[in-house]
């Protein structure tokens, strides 16, 4: 059976107005054209749907029987079309997003603020994870798009760099190295170290830079949270190598950040997606906003923390 939407719409309009001429006018077609649609529908169904008189038309028993079904079908098709248009125009839908913690407290909030203002009908589902788990969320499809970094090339993933994030040494203001303009990895090894877990990209990049400098860092404290690491530095328990991106949003009172040299360490922060999959309109809109927001986060150099309360 090969019914068309135009045939069903012609049928329901004819039933509504009990007039072929009125139904034809509502469809914007001639009456002969309308009559042809009804005849084709009746032939397809093998039923007579209308009883025609010189003054009006009325539904046959068969016509009355299938009218509600035809109306429901058209309503469902209209709803399908509306949902498709909403999805295409980013008015409704769901976007699943992965991010790393240091991005979650820096680049992500202003990006989300703009996105939510522009596309209030999009529901966001978040997956926060350290760098290793972050990539897996995108690779597995749990997250359609990620905002973070890629530790090593992956043939299944596409990475678009948006900015560079410098790693800096956070020191208590009374730390022996705090008065220096910059510090070296070798100089830092003489002091207690506060580090994040090896699952973090911060730890991975810091260890790589230290190895390149010919030194090995044995952390005194190993933590999951960047915020806790900052707290321990402010308490004078040691230094921490942390991403400058995350430090922008934290209270550094009682601490100073110094660029670590020989060598300097950077992370590329950007968008992570799956290579073989097209992005939804919502994901493309999010990516465009992230590209616009990222330039507001230039490289972060030495800084003094706010006065300790």
Can you tell me about this structure?
By secondary structure, the chain is of the alpha/beta class. It has 3 domains: 84 residues, Arc Repressor Mutant, subunit A, CATH 1.10.10; 99 residues, 3-Layer(aba) Sandwich (D-Maltodextrin-Binding Protein, domain 2), CATH 3.40.190.10; 102 residues, Periplasmic binding protein-like II (D-Maltodextrin-Binding Protein, domain 2). Helix content is 42%, strand content 24%. It is rod-shaped, with a radius of gyration of 32 Å. It starts with a helix and ends in a 5-residue tail after the last strand.
Features:
two-stranded antiparallel sheet, 3 domains, D-Maltodextrin-Binding Protein, domain 2, Arc Repressor Mutant, subunit A, alpha/beta, 309 residues
């Amino acid at each position: 059976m090969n019914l068309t939407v135009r045939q069903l719409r012609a049928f329901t309009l004819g039933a509504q107005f009990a007039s072929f001429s009125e139904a034809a006018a509502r469809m914007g077609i001639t009456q002969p054209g309308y009559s042809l649609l009804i005849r084709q529908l009746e032939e397809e169904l093998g039923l007579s749907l209308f009883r025609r008189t010189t003054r009006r038309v009325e539904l046959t028993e068969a016509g009355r029987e299938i009218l509600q079904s035809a109306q429901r079908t058209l309503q469902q098709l209209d709803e399908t079309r509306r949902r498709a248009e909403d999805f295409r125009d980013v008015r409704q839908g769901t976007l699943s997003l992965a991010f790393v913690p240091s991005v979650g407290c820096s680049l992500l909030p202003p990006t989300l603020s703009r996105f939510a203002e522009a596309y209030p009908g999009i529901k966001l589902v978040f997956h926060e994870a350290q760098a290793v788990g972050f990539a897996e969320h995108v690779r597995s499809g749990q997250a359609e798009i990620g905002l973070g970094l890629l530790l090593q090339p992956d043939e299944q993933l596409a990475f678009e760099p948006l900015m560079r994030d410098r790693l800096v040494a956070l020191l208590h203001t009374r730390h022996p190295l705090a008065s220096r303009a910059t510090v070296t990895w070798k100089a830092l090894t003489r002091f207690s170290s506060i580090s994040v877990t090896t699952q973090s990209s911060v730890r991975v990049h810091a260890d790589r830079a230290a190895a390149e400098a010919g030194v090995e860092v044995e952390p005194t404290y190993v933590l999951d949270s960047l915020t806790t690491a900052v707290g321990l530095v402010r308490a004078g328990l040691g230094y921490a190598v942390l991403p400058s991106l995350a430090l922008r949003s934290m209270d550094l009172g009682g601490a100073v950040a110094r660029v670590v040299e020989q060598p300097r360490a950077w992370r590329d922060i950007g968008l992570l997606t799956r290579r073989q999959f097209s992005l939804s309109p919502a994901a493309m809109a999010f990516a465009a906003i992230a590209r616009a927001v990222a330039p507001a986060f230039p490289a972060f150099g030495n800084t003094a923390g706010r006065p300790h309360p």
